[in-house]
Task: inverse folding
């Protein structure tokens, strides 16, 4: 097997994972920007991560169903809380989201205080290990994302505030364990932000930006032997900035 084929066998599953995350998170990210709750994904992802850490500290296998259930339950509980605060205190919702994120992050640090692998676990939660995505897991994750997209595009006008938060929690719970928190946030925010001045074909252009960002970032990370998550984040930003500048100039 040649070096090129080995690299392709590593990049291909990671790229598919990136495309799946892009497909789901960009339309949700547009809604996040419209609602002015940009940091909700960080908060929900951190809460889901707290569920993962808690399940791990109780002795459950990292890849087991108990951990997945714990992560989703924690994320849904966080969504329920943020739904209530959004209804009760809409004027300070962004600040509340920030507080929830900090509390979840601090809680994770406390739970990992006696864990010798704490730094490794926190790094995996934040940066992710997208290059080590298992191809065997992708069909299930693709099915979950397909259901989320079907609900979003078919019933988004009827699911209400909690429906949005719950759907968002499900998407983030899957994604943060697949690609890490940094990529979840970047995929959710950078393409919608870069295309916010584009009226026609905004969604397909945002999708194209996300897919190109993952393709360029993964390729560069393998070629330069750099961590894939951070490189993809930078690739998304470096592609998004000129697109935003160009669309802003055309608009003015």
Result:
């Amino acid at each position: 097997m040649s070096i090129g084929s080995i690299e392709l066998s590593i990049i291909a599953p990671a790229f598919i994972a990136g495309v799946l995350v892009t497909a789901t998170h960009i339309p949700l990210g547009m809604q996040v920007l419209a609602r002015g709750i940009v940091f909700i994904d960080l908060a929900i992802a951190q809460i889901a991560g707290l569920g993962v850490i808690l399940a791990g500290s109780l002795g459950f296998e990292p890849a087991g169903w108990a951990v997945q259930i714990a992560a989703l339950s924690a994320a849904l509980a966080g969504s329920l809380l943020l739904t209530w605060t959004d209804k009760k205190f809409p004027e300070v919702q962004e600040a509340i989201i920030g507080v929830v994120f900090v509390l979840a992050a601090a809680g994770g640090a406390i739970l990992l205080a006696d864990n010798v692998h704490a730094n490794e676990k926190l790094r995996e939660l934040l940066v992710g290990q997208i290059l080590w995505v298992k191809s065997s897991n992708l069909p299930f994750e693709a099915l979950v994302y397909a259901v989320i997209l079907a609900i979003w595009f078919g019933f988004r006008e009827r699911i209400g505030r909690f429906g949005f938060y719950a759907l968002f929690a499900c998407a983030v719970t899957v994604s943060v364990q697949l690609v890490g928190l940094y990529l979840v946030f970047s995929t959710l925010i950078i393409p919608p932000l870069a295309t916010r001045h584009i009226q026609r074909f905004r969604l397909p252009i945002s999708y194209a930006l996300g897919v190109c960002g993952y393709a360029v970032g993964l390729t560069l990370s393998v070629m330069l032997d750099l961590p894939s998550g951070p490189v993809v984040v930078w690739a998304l930003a470096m592609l998004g900035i000129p697109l935003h500048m160009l669309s802003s100039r055309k608009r003015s």
User: Anything to note?
Assistant: Residues 3-251 form a domain with the ABC transporter involved in vitamin B12 uptake, BtuC fold (CATH 1.10.3470.10). The two ends are 53 Å apart (CA to CA). The mean pLDDT is 84. The chain is about 80% helix and 0% strand.
